[in-house]
Amino acid sequence: MVSLLSLFLSIGAAVVSALPATLQPRQSWTVGYWAHELTEFGCKPIIFIWAKATIEPGNMGNTVGPRLSDGLKAVFGPANVATQGVDYWGFIETNFYPGGAPPWGIYDMQLLLNAAATCPNAKIIAAGYSQGAALTHRAVEGLDQSVKDKIAAVVTFGDTQTWQDGGRIKDFDTNRTLIICNAGDAVCTGTLYVFPVHFDYVKWVPTATYYLAQKLLDDAALRPWPNGSFVFPNVTIPGIPPIPAAPQPPEAVPASLPPLPTPNDVGTIESNGLFT
């Protein structure tokens, strides 16, 4: 059982929702189009910040976002993951802002990442799809280095800034970045021409889930979660097959991975070397 954490946080009057002082009971899985688990319930061992695609509903969307959230919760246990969507209006027109994303969305994602970085024992991951991928680029590149150092990994899907930023997120570690682009997705080549292949990214959720999971475990090996703050599910993270650099060649297909596991709550953290 994850112990209750106390949180006293102030990130200025500009923050729309301050983090609560204590954790409250919360839903386990991502249901519907919205997720505010960081701003409503506070710190968790893993904090997942998501930026949805253009005109998707809510702040999670209805395609990749909820599935990736639940994939992470299936691997690590729902009680260990706080999912937070970025509240921004992803209009078609906002793709044409410099950098591919609206300033207010970039600002909101940076507020969330800065807030997450104040959680002393949390490990942060972030991801975005389409316009949300551009939002992720601009938000992450503008963070202080101390906050970037606390982000275990970033994944983008159908990334509209792939070509513009040289296949990476500027000023962020490429070893902690995965950009996933379908073969033939023109938005990954510096245009905003949208073809049906741009809407076919749900198939990559297992690949992204296991990539993020492995990066979280790598980080935990260096900076373990404090003993008692994380109940580690009895699951095995499979190796990730090599993923072609984006944009991918025509023969690229999603990595073949086993189904996402369901934690069975066996095993104890005392026997796991990732905890001190």
Describe this structure in words.
With 276 residues, this protein is α/β, with parallel strands linked by helices. It is 24% helix and 11% strand. It has 6 helices and 5 strands; from the N terminus they run H-E-H-E-H-E-H-H-E-E-H. It has a 5-stranded parallel sheet, with helices on both faces. The longest helix has 18 residues, at 205-222. The protein starts with 36 loop residues before the first helix and ends in a 54-residue tail after the last helix.
User: Main beta sheet: strand number and arrangement?
Assistant: 5 strands, parallel
- Into which percent range does the helicity of residues fall? 10-25%
Question: Quick one: overall form?
Answer: globular
Please state the average pLDDT score.
Answer: 80
β-strand amount:
5-15%
- Computed Rg: 18 Å
* String of helices and strands: HEHEHEHHEEH
So how many helices? 6
Category from helices, strands and their pairing? alpha/beta
Strands, helices and their partners?
Blueprint: H1 37-41, E1 46-51, H2 64-76, E2 81-85, H3 103-117, E3 123-129, H4 131-141, H5 145-148, E4 151-157, E5 177-180, H6 205-222
Parallel strand pairs: 1-2, 1-3, 3-4, 4-5
